[in-house]
Amino acid sequence: MLYYLKRKNENIALIDFTPDGDIYEVREIINNKLSPLHMQNDFNWLKRWWKRRSVPISQGNIRFLLEKKGLLGSEEYLLKNLGLSLTDYYWICPVNSDLTWEDINLFDNEFVGNIMMGEMESDIQDGMPHFTPNSSLQGTLEKSWVIINGERGLLKGNRDNYSSESINEVIASRLHELQGFDNYTKYYLKKINGKNYDYGCFSKLFTSQHLELVLAYDIECSEKKSNDISTYEHFLNVSANHGLNKDKLQSYMDYLITTDFILSERDRHLSNIAVLRDADTLEFIKPAPIYDSGKCMFVNDSIPSTDKGLLSINTVSFMADELRMLKLVKDRSLVDVTKLPTRNFIEKIYSMDSQMDEKRIYAICDAYERKIDLFRMYQLGEDLNKIKFAVNTKTRDNTEMDSYVLDDEADDLEEETEITPRL
């Protein structure tokens, strides 16, 4: 089964696929310049790229839905949907087909099927084939690309009966809003019917026909790293090689790392950091809006009650824990600690979750307030490692934060739309 890998209407490579969606052979690289970022001397990069592009079989109900549709795996699902995505312009086109990017791209053409609700697209509708971007949607959390009231965006759920991960996205949105930081993804709570949890969250699409997403993982892997620099420095350097101002990227990362510390966000892996690239020039334009902050505020985890515990949080990122991540920061002053979500706001939004225990809400808020205190110490130049290993490690005493209450800060938490599965 021969297909062209394309970028919009430009041929990139000629590929022979097996019926179940695996790449059997790469027949020819036609335009390496327009290829997805990859290490130039890696002859198997395209096979790995295709496999990574397919939706993880562990995501939500994907395994069940593929079996229901009679598909052998996620690569076959990707093949049937021509490898289309809403984050870039790569797709596959059967040889001898007259399909064009204008015919099938999902930035402009409609798509259907909310896989969070157990819906998959029909092969034929209105006499025309319909495709979905969900076959290339990454991550293990259940989610789906959707069109709501004409707006393309991502609907996300949660990993258990709690709405915590969705609520945490809204808390992170509020933090960036209060800071006056404009390069973030705004999340809204959505009432989800037919699920064990109350709320999911929705965010609007921030890519377009003009700007595509390039993950930090792909940036870091696209050039060989010198042994005398860190992976983090390598990421900054390679991004600069592609036209991104290094100082601006460093400032963005300083802000991201420090706000992640305050929220105890532990999952800032290299697919949760990205840049936006110009569709025509291929130059990196700016860091992508901050996204995927749901694994913060001790979700699915115990809540530390001591400074040592709060300063011992492991991370999946450039470094293995929060304190090491803070060592990457050059400017500690970017976050204003007087402009952060208040305890009152966080208690109120968590209380919207009918599954959430009041005792846990209070414990989360205690830990959050203490993290703010610790961050303030860090801004003043104190060594958090010394606090972590102090003999007399104390718990939070719930003082000093009352002065940060803001009026009307719980407005606009939830949009009116409810999401209900089709019968």
Task: Please provide a brief summary of the model.
The chain has helices at residues 45-53, 62-69, 74-80, 101-104, 164-179, 216-221, 231-241, 246-263, 307-310, 322-326, 343-350, 358-379, 384-388; strands at residues 2-7, 10-17, 23-29, 90-94, 124-125, 128-129, 143-148, 151-156, 187-192, 199-204, 211-215, 274-278, 284-287, 414-419.
Description:
With 423 residues, the protein is α+β, with helices and mostly antiparallel strands. It is 29% helix and 17% strand. The protein has helices at 45-53, 62-69, 74-80, 101-104, 164-179, 216-221, 231-241, 246-263, 307-310, 322-326, 343-350, 358-379, 384-388; strands spanning 2-7, 10-17, 23-29, 90-94, 124-125, 128-129, 143-148, 151-156, 187-192, 199-204, 211-215, 274-278, 284-287, 414-419. The strands form 4 sheets. Strands 7-8-10-9-14 form a 5-stranded mixed β-sheet, covered by helices on one side. A hairpin with a 2-residue loop joins β5 and β6 (128-129). α11 runs antiparallel to α12. The protein is globular, with a radius of gyration of 23 Å. The two termini are 37 Å apart.
